[in-house]
Amino acid sequence: MRPLRLLALAAVVWALAVQAAPVPAGRTGQVVSVSERDFAAARLGRLGLDALMEKDGRVYLVVSADECAELARRGVPFADETQRLALAAVERVGAGGGVNGAFHSPYEMETDLRLLEEAHPDLARLSEIGRSLEGRPLYALKISDNATVDEHEPAVLFAGCHHAREWISVEVPFLFGKYLLERYASDATVRALVDASEIWIVPIANPDGLQYTIDVYRYWRKNRRANVDGTYGVDINRNYGYAWGFDDQGSSPHPGSDVYRGTAAFSEPETAAVRDLVQAHDIRAMISFHSFGQDILYAWGFTSEPAPSDAELGAIGRTMAGLIEAVNGTVYVPGQASRALYVTNGDLIDWAYSLAGAPSYTIELPPVDIDHGGFFNDETAIAAVFEENRPAMLYLVRYAIDHPLLRRPLSPVRRERSVLSQTRKPKLVLRQP
Ligand code: 0X9
Ligand code: CA
Ligand code: ZN
């Protein structure tokens, strides 16, 4: 038996063992579904649960043992979906061989980024923008003509892997960088874009979490912060500094939660590194890749109020959706994040948009839902997922070159601390400086 097959077999045995083991308190453990009606009736939206999706009248949640106990305490009937999903996942990963198959681990990514930089020294520059909690380098690949010189050109950021288990989100920004570099010499469209802009690729914003999904637990989402209560992890897509901690629905104050926001905005080195990168350059657009769901999401995420640039954000989102669908016929649905998916606060996109109105998007890559694989993309589909996103990514770079920023920075939004805010919806105060 080839060693890769052995590893795959080990993964199967491991996954089955995990199923049988009781879930330790406070640790993320299983996927359950509850009916939409019960979800609403029991006001579960207020608990800051890790909702994966809604499908056929049911809401799917990744829950810790504590959260599971809370569901039981509230008398909410739930179905355990863990077994079904885990078995599907094992079949998928095993088929390609190896623990992570064709997907990149942090170390594999470091190697491939170095190779790209070496092959294209004038066009690519790899920099370390910070270090993760566990000390892994956080890499950004800059792609531009005269890449080693700061020419103050309009910049676009493509980021992946804020969430550890969303492996496909690593591959799309990486493959885009590779595509630009390899096509520069022969493709006039690519050359024009690269010459006129700086394209920043941060394929793995959360390397510690990614490594953990490979070594220990495939459903891990957060980084690996050791929290004061003995739990681990901050959701780094709840740790950015706009409307951070606005309410407890869009993020959780509880460290064990899968959507824990951390002790302060930018408390995590991973988010601080992305912040510093964005602030150091003229970022005019960005996409933060996630999975899954096939959505194109834009501000605001923290409130259902529309953003001041709602019309422009929607128009760009619809254009990208059209470009994507034209490739393989895959439908990605554009929409305001809080309405199309659910409310979040402290995500990268709200913060990035709030700075100076840069059109900023979360793209939830395929599949569309759990029954089509959830976080477990077949490695043979990586290329197709990238290919369908490529025209939208090129379009956004062109847009950024051609358009100034939408508006001036918005003033901060604060969480309302009054007693009233617990019974009313938090009041939204948005002012222009
Ligand atoms: O929850 C998130 O951070 C993103 N979804 S995921 O399933 N990949 O975790 C969505 C962020 C977009 N913002 C809002 N939906 N408000
Ligand atoms: Ca340049
Ligand atoms: Zn995500």
What would your notes on this structure say?
The protein is of the alpha/beta class and 433 residues long. It has helices at residues 3-20, 36-41, 65-73, 82-96, 106-119, 168-183, 188-196, 207-215, 269-280, 310-328, 337-340, 348-356, 382-402, and strands at residues 28-35, 50-55, 58-64, 79-80, 124-131, 137-143, 155-159, 198-202, 283-291, 295-298, 333-336, 360-365. It has 2 domains: 3-91, Alpha-Beta Plaits (2-Layer Sandwich); 106-423, Aminopeptidase (3-Layer(aba) Sandwich), CATH 3.40.630. The chain is built from 13 helices and 12 strands. The strands form 2 sheets. An 8-stranded mixed sheet has the order 5-6-8-7-9-12-10-11, sandwiched between helices. Strand 5 (124-131) and strand 6 (137-143) form a beta hairpin. Helix 1 (3-20) runs antiparallel to helix 4 (82-96), helix 6 (168-183) packs across helix 13 and helix 10 packs antiparallel against helix 13. The longest helix has 21 residues, at 382-402. Mean pLDDT is 87; it is low at 1-28, 93-97 and 416-433.
In this entry the ligands are: N~2~-sulfamoyl-L-arginine, calcium ion, zinc ion
Q: At the third CATH level, what is the topology name of the largest domain?
A: Aminopeptidase
Q: What is the H/E order?
A: HEHEEHEHHEEEHHEHHEEHEHHEH
| Helix content estimate | 25-40%
Query: CATH H level of the largest domain: which superfamily?
Result: Zn peptidases
CATH class of the largest domain: Alpha Beta
Structural class: alpha/beta
CATH architect. name of the largest domain: 3-Layer(aba) Sandwich
- Which assembly state applies to the chains in this document? single chain
N-C termini distance: 66 Å
Number of domains in the coordinates?
Answer: 2
Number of helices: 13
The pLDDT mean sits at 87
The major beta sheet can be summarized as: 8 strands, mixed
User: In what order do the strands lie side by side in the largest sheet?
Assistant: 5-6-8-7-9-12-10-11
The rough form would be described as globular
- Strand tally, please? 12
